Amino acid sequence: MRLFYALLFPEHTLRELISIQNAINPYLYKGNATRKENLHLTLAFLGEQDEKLLPLLSSILDALPGKEIEVTFNHLGVFPKKGGDIIYTGIAYHQRLFQVQKTLIALLQEYHVVFKDTRFKAHVTLFRRAQYEEIPSFTPCISRASSIALMQSHRVRGILTYSPIYSKILQ
């Protein structure tokens, strides 16, 4: 199973992210927008994992703090890629967000879960394979994450789908 941990957002935030996509779209020659259902902030990408690890991975999620996390979407950025860039909305530093992510990584390491630990860059991917001349600016917005989830990345009838396997509501 291809797995990752993600911060998920309430419906009104997803609508706001879609409106940012809609504002960027006229500037693109080409690009694949992230479907609303797939918009999230990745806390840790685990890659291919054995299904037998699901109880452990769920218990790690349970061990994370459950306090609400506020995020500020404050800029647009680009990860250059051959064949088209990734356009994302970046998130301002917020101590609770970065502490949760750091705790998650420490727990994964403590329980010897094998994954590629990369430098954390808080963002939400808006477009993949994007080609453009320029990217517009946008007005920053603030939201509160609604939950943290262990997610599966898979294809459903040929469509990339991110499905929550186990989640924890943030309060």
UniProtKB/TrEMBL annotation:
Top-tier EC class: hydrolase
Keywords assigned by UniProt, alphabetized: Hydrolase
UniProt key word Kinase: no
Catalytic activity: a 3'-end 2',3'-cyclophospho-ribonucleotide-RNA + H2O = a 3'-end 2'-phospho-ribonucleotide-RNA + H(+)
InterPro entries in UniProt: Cyclic_Pdiesterase (IPR009097), Phosphoesterase_HXTX (IPR014051), RNA_CPDase (IPR004175)
GO MF annotation, one: 2',3'-cyclic-nucleotide 3'-phosphodiesterase activity
Enzyme Commission (EC) number: 3.1.4.58
Functional summary from the UniProt entry: Hydrolyzes RNA 2',3'-cyclic phosphodiester to an RNA 2'-phosphomonoester.
HAMAP family: RNA_CPDase
Protein name: RNA 2',3'-cyclic phosphodiesterase
Organism classification: Bacteria, Pseudomonadati, Spirochaetota, Spirochaetia, Spirochaetales
